[in-house]
C-alpha cells in the first residue's frame, strides 16, 4: 500500500515537471524553450513508462556449482533473471540476499586468532551488481562466496532495483528463490599423544592399540615359531633345558564415546563452538581408525546418538549431523553428562568436548573421575574470554586426577592440535 502511494506521488511529480516545462515553452516561445521541452520529452515518457512497468515480469533462478562442500572453501553462484517481454530497462541492480549464517568468513585455522573477539570475522559484503539490460531477455550474474562457513545455508530471495534517468522513479522487487547449500565442518588434523586403554592389571594410557607392549610380564611359555629372540627367558631356559619365552599382558583396547556439548551460554563464544565441532569430528574419526567402534553423542536440544564403524555410511551420518547443528544458549549439560556416564558401560573411554565450563560441569567431571572412569574433558575458550570463576575451575581440574585440557588460540591456530589424554 505504501509503495503504491509513493509510486502515485512520483507519477504526479513527473507529470508536473513535464507540465511546467511545456508551460515555459508556450509562454517563452522560441527555439531554445521548445528544444528543451522536446529534448526532455523522451525522458519524461520513459519515466511514465517505468511507473507502470511491472517488475513481476522478471523470474529468477539461482544455481550453485557445488552444493556440498567443506568449510573454508569457495563456492561459485550464478543468478539468472528471465523475462518474456523485452521492454527497455535502462539499468537493473541485482542483489542476492545472503542468509545470516553466511555473515562471517571461515578462514580455517587462521580464524581462531580472533577466538576472543569473533565479531572481527563478520565482514561479508553484500553480493550485488548493476547491469544495463535494455532489451535483453536473459540476464546472468556470477559471484563468488569465499571462505564459506559450516552449516546449512538457506537462500530465500533475490532483490532487483531499477529507475529512470532522473532518479525520480525507483522500483524494487523481491523475487523468492528458495535454495540451500550444506557445508560440512572442516576436517582438521589432531594428534592424540596418548590415550586411554586398559591392561589385565592396572591402567595405562596409549592410543596405539596396534603396538604390543612388552614391559609387563605375566608368565612364561614354551618357545613357538615367530617369537622374537629378545623375548627368550634365559634363566628359565637354562633350568628347563629348553627354549622358553616370556608371555606379556595383552592390551585390551576399549571403545570410545565422544560427547559434544551442544550449548554455549555466552553468545560471543560461537567461534569456540565451531572449534568444538571440528575437534569432536576429528577425534571421532581418528578414534574410528584406531578402534573401529565409536559412539558419538550430541547433547543439544535433543539427544542425538550415532554408532560409528568403518563404513562409509557412518562417516556420512557424522558429517550430516555436524553440518546442521547450531549452539544453544541454555542447557543442563551437567545433568546430561551424569546421565550419559551412568548409561555408559565401564569399558568405554569418554571424551568430552565443550565450549562451556561452569561449576556444575566441573563437579560432574570430578565425580566421574572419582568413579574410576576414563574421562578426558576438553574445554575450548579464548584467553580473554575466561572469567575468574572459569580460571578457578580450570586450576582445580588441572590439579585433579581427571584428564583435562584447555585449548586456546595458541592451540587452535596450529596446523595440528595435540590432545593429551
Automatic annotation (TrEMBL):
One matching Pfam family: DUF58
Residues passing through the membrane, by range: 7-27, 33-55
Keywords attached to this entry: Membrane, Transmembrane, Transmembrane helix
Domain of life: Bacteria
Domain DUF58: 220-261
Keyword Membrane tagged: yes
Protein's recorded name: DUF58 domain-containing protein
Amino acid at each position: 500500500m505504501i509503495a503504491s502511494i509513493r509510486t502515485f506521488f512520483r507519477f504526479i511529480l513527473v507529470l508536473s515537471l513535464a507540465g511546467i516545462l511545456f508551460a515555459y515553452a508556450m509562454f517563452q516561445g522560441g527555439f531554445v524553450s521548445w528544444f528543451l521541452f522536446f529534448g526532455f520529452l523522451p525522458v519524461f515518457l520513459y519515466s511514465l513508462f517505468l511507473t507502470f512497468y511491472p517488475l513481476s515480469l522478471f523470474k529468477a533462478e539461482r544455481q550453485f556449482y557445488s552444493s556440498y562442500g567443506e568449510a573454508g572453501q569457495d563456492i561459485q553462484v550464478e543468478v539468472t533473471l528471465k523475462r518474456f517481454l523485452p521492454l527497455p530497462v535502462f539499468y537493473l541492480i541485482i542483489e542476492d540476499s545472503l542468509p545470516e549464517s553466511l555473515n562471517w568468513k571461515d578462514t580455517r585455522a587462521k580464524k581462531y586468532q580472533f577466538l576472543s573477539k569473533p565479531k572481527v570475522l563478520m565482514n561479508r559484503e553484500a553480493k550485488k551488481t548493476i547491469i544495463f539490460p535494455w532489451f535483453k531477455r536473459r540476464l546472468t550474474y556470477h559471484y563468488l562466496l569465499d571462505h564459506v562457513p559450516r552449516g546449512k545455508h538457506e537462500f530465500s530471495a533475490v532483490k532487483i532495483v531499477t529507475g529512470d534517468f532522473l532518479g525520480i522513479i525507483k522500483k524494487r522487487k523481491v523475487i523468492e528463490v528458495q535454495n540451500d547449500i550444506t557445508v560440512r565442518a572442516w576436517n582438521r588434523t589432531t594428534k592424540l599423544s596418548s590415550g586411554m586403554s586398559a591392561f589385565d592389571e592396572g591402567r595405562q594410557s596409549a592410543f596405539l592399540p596396534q603396538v604390543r607392549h612388552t614391559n609387563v610380564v605375566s608368565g612364561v611359555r614354551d618357545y613357538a615359531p615367530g617369537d622374537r629372540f629378545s623375548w627368550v627367558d634365559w634363566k628359565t631356559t637354562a633350568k628347563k633345558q629348553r627354549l622358553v619365552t616370556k608371555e606379556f599382558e595383552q592390551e585390551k583396547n576399549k571403545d570410545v564415546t565422544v560427547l559434544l556439548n551442544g550449548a554455549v551460554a555466552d553468545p560471543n563464544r560461537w567461534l569456540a563452538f565451531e572449534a568444538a565441532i571440528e575437534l569432536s569430528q576429528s577425534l571421532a574419526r581418528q578414534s574410528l581408525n584406531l578402534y573401529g567402534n565409536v559412539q558419538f553423542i550430541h547433547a543439544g536440544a535433543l539427544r542425538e546418538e550415532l554408532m560409528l564403524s568403518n563404513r562409509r555410511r557412518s562417516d556420512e551420518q557424522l558429517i550430516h549431523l555436524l553440518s546442521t547443528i547450531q549452539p544453544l544458549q541454555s542447557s543442563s549439560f551437567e545433568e546430561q553428562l551424569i546421565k550419559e556416564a551412568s548409561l555408559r558401560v565401564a569399558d568405554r573411554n569418554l571424551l568430552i568436548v565443550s565450549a562451556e565450563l561452569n561449576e556444575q560441569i566441573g563437579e560432574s567431571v570430578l565425580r566421574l573421575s572419582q568413579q574410576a572412569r576414563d574421562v578426558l574433558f576438553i574445554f575450548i575458550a579464548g584467553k580473554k574470554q575466561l572469567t575468574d570463576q572459569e580460571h578457578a575451575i580450570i586450576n582445580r581440574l588441572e590439579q585433579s586426577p581427571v584428564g583435562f585440557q584447555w585449548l586456546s588460540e595458541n592451540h587452535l591456530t596450529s596446523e595440528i592440535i595435540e590432545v593429551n589424554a
